[in-house]
Amino acid sequence: MNVAVATNDGLTIDTHFGHAREFWIYDLNDETATFLERRDIEQYCVAGQSMDSALGGILKAVADCQAVLVAMIGEPPRAKLAAMGVQAVSEYANEPIEAALRDYARRQAGD
């Protein structure tokens, strides 16, 4: 399964969904996370305003992902992601990417 991660530093899940300018895409297989690529996106939140024009491109960029791991996310984009079958996960905010991905994979395997 593919998982998108919002990160600025490349080490932790430190970016709010609306502030992300790219998502790092990982392939999760059991508890192994393999980095695939970075996907550039238009920022959704600019100067405190939601840019609805950007949301469509963001949703398209993560359409093949099971989840998006972010530091925070508002309810409107969370609902849009859920409607297309992508889970918005903010419980790993500021945690190391690798550890968060392993834990997420472990939890999904237990479902």
Describe this entry's structure for a reader.
This protein is α/β, with parallel strands linked by helices. It has one domain (2-110): 2-Layer Sandwich (Nucleotidyltransferase, domain 5), CATH 3.30.420. Helix content is 30%, strand content 30%. The chain has 3 helices and 7 strands, in the order E-E-E-E-E-H-E-H-E-H. The protein has helices at 52-61, 75-83, 97-110; strands at residues 2-5, 22-29, 32-40, 45-46, 49-50, 65-69, 87-89. Strands 3-2-1-6-7 form a 5-stranded mixed β-sheet. The protein is globular, with a radius of gyration of 13 Å. The mean pLDDT is 92.
The overall pLDDT average reads 92
Order of strands across the main sheet: 3-2-1-6-7
- The percentage of residues in β strands lies in 25-35%
Which secondary-structure class do the elements indicate? Answer: alpha/beta
